[in-house]
Amino acid sequence: MSLPQRHRVVVLALDGLLPFELGIPHRIFGLARTDEGRRLYETVTCGVTGEPVQTNADFAISVAHGPELLATADTVVVPASYELGPVYEEGRLSGELAAALAHIRPGTRLVAICTGGYVLAAAGFLDGRPATTHWAHAEHFQRLFPTIRVDADVLFIDDGDVLTSAGVAAGIDLCLHIVRRDHGAAVANDVARRTVVPPHRDGGQAQYIQRPVPEPAQRHTTATARAWALHHLHKPVQLRDLAEREAMSVRTFTRRFREEVGVSPGHWLTQQRVERARHLLESTDLSIDQVATDSGFGTAQSLRQHFQAALGVPPTVYRRTFRTGGDGTGKGGGALVRAPSTARRPPPRRSAFAEDEDTGVVTSSASPRRVSPIPE
Fold first, then answer.
1. Among 115, 146, 322, 324, which residue has the least CB neighbours within 10 Å?
2. Cα–Cα separations (whole angstroms), residue 241 to 24, 233, 296, 357
3. How far apart are CA 7 and CA 30, in angstroms?
4. For 227-238, what is each residue's pLDDT tens digit?
């Protein structure tokens, strides 16, 4: 039996590129493998002219392939560049760049890291779509391309066949998200472990945190409470309990948590429970009710609501996709799950829950059972 062809990722290297961001797709996609060790992606690099590509560092990069390689891509990645010329200044492609992008086949998945989004925008790929870029360029990006719905407050946006991210580390988050979307959480988590980075930061997380590192005088962080919560996701977790573990008031803990993580404790806890549910759906035959219990959502209804809001598909569809590979083979991987754009994510259905102001516990109006322990 012949093995399926590997998904080909072509990275377009432009003059002025950041070497770090050029290496992100090669590192993340290059580490994604099946349980048998087979590579799931083939990642190659091309340039626009066939000449060495100048970087923003003190060296150039020799690129073996020309733009015709774009015609072979399943996914095209455009990393950031600081020398985009008319693309950045006027919102238009140079003749050479336009000719290079003309090689891209219809239906190819397009990915931009940081200012690479300017290239996709100038080519018209982002017209009428939600997109993001580095927060420092977001206002300029919006002025230059007014038809794009720019969101500067997120790490990345998945709009199906076109994905954009903020700068630098957000490119890692986006590539891990793509691996997770293509092949499931287990493969993405393995890549993250090998890369020694967090396995998941939600795309809707704020990209600019005012104080990401506590000041030297601040001896306490929220790390211990977060670690404790991860080991007790299946139990009711109250905000007051988390604060007490760090010897902080609830107000101080909530403020410090948002400063360090970028989201509220409730939002973060829901993210972690969704990730736990994904893992259980992929790796076990537990019933939906049991997955809901073990991941801390309490009821199948609560699990479905949160899962649908986060991933755009119900738990049963997600399990069927990643437990069968989408083709009935009985092996996960290779199937794509349409993740919703973070810019289009629907607001939580607040009418279904009621919050206890004293304890910080959210209860379902349809059932007295606690379904989410911290307000989101």
1. 146
2. 38, 13, 16, 15
3. 11
4. 999 999 999 999
pTM score of the predicted model: 0.70
Biggest distance spanned by C-alpha atoms of the chain:
67
Cα angle vertex 259, ends 255, 265, to 5°?
Answer: 60
Beta-bridge partner residues of 164: 112, 157
First to last CA, the chain: 49
Strand partners of residue 188: none
Backbone phi and psi for residue 164, each to the nearest 5 degrees, phi listed first: -130, 155
Give the tens place of pLDDT for each residue, 44-88.
999 998 889 999 999 999 999 999 999 999 999 999 998 999 999
In angstroms, rounded to a whole number, what is the distance separating the alpha carbons of residues 110 and 14? 16
How far CA 11 is from CA of 17, 111, 156, 169, 355, in Å, comes to 12, 9, 18, 17, 47
Q: Within 13 A of 36's CA, how many CA atoms are on the CB side?
A: 6
Interstrand relation of 156-158 and 149-150 (parallel, antiparallel or unpaired): unpaired
